[in-house]
Structure prediction request, 302 residues.
Amino acid sequence: MSIKVLGVSKLYGQQKALDQVSFEINSGEIVGFLGPNGAGKSTMMKIITGFIPQTSGQVFVNDQIVDAEAIDIRQQIGYLPEHNPLYLDMYVREYLRFVGGLYRIDKIKDRVEEMIELTGLQIESSKKIGALSKGYRQRVGLAQALIHDPSVLILDEPTSGLDPNQIVEIRDLIARVGLKKTVMLSTHIMQEVEAICGRIIIINKGQIVAEESTQNASNILHSTEIITQIELSKTINSSVFKQIKGINEAQNIKDQIWVIRSQMDVRQQIFDLAIKENFSILSMQLVEKTLEQIFQEVTQKK
Ligand code: ADP
Ligand code: MG
Prediction:
C-alpha cells in the first residue's frame, strides 16, 4: 500500500474541511481525486504530503506514518501544489538545482538536465520562470516534484488553467512518469481522469462519496438519465409524453411545469410533440446533474 488514509478529519476553526476520510492507494496506481471546488481535495493532499496536520486520523505513505516530525518521508513524495508556487525571478535551472539541493541529491547538474529533458523544458530552459507560459510553469512544477525520484506523486489540479493543447501534453507526461510511480491527482473535471486514471475517488463536502474504477465511472455517467425541465402554455395529460420513445417518466411538478426523465436527449422530440399536440413550450432546459449527484444516486441504489 503506497497511501493509506484512515479516518482523517480536518477542522479549520469551526469549519470541517474533511470528515472521517479513509481510502487506500496501491503501489503503481494512478488515481483521480475528483470533486467540486471546496470539496477538500487540496486539504487532503496537503495532509498526505505533511504540509499541514490533520485534526484527527492517520496517514501512511509507504507504510510510514506522515506527521510533522516525519521529515524523511518527504524524500519519497513528490508534490505539485495547487497554485504551484514557483520563484518567478529564478531561472529554470537555478530553481531546479535549488530544489535538488533541498533533497541533497547527488550529481545535481546531471539530474536537472534529465528532468529538463523528461518534462520537455529544453527550449525554455534558459529563461526565468516568470517569463514562461502557464503550461511551461506546470512542467517546471512537475520537474521539481520528480527531481528526487519519489515513488509517490501527489498532483493538485495539474492541468487547471492550461489550454487544451497544454492539457494533453501535461496529461501525457503524467501518464508516462506514472508508469513507474504511484500517482494521486486531483481535478474537478471527469474527462481528465478518464484519460489517465485507473480508478477514481470522489469527494464532496469533505466526505468520500464514491470509489470506482474509471471504466465503471464512465459507464455510470454515460448511462445516466437525462432530466429536462419544461414549462408549457397549457395543461396536458401525461399520457401525451408516451408518444416519445426513451422517456422513462414525465412528472408534472406544478401548474404547467414538467420534469422529464429520459435515456437520451429528447428536446427535439418534445418540440415536435408540441407542434403535433398543439401546445407551446415557454421554456425548456436540461437539468445538469453534478458528478456527485450522479454517484450518490448510483451508490445509494447499490
Ligand atoms: P478543494 O481543493 O477541493 O477545492 P480545499 O481543500 O481547498 O478544497 O477546501 C476545503 C474547504 O476548506 C473549503 O471550504 C475551504 O474554504 C476551506 N479551507 C481551505 N483552506 C483553508 C484555510 N487555510 N483556512 C480556512 N478554511 C480553509
Ligand atoms: Mg483545491
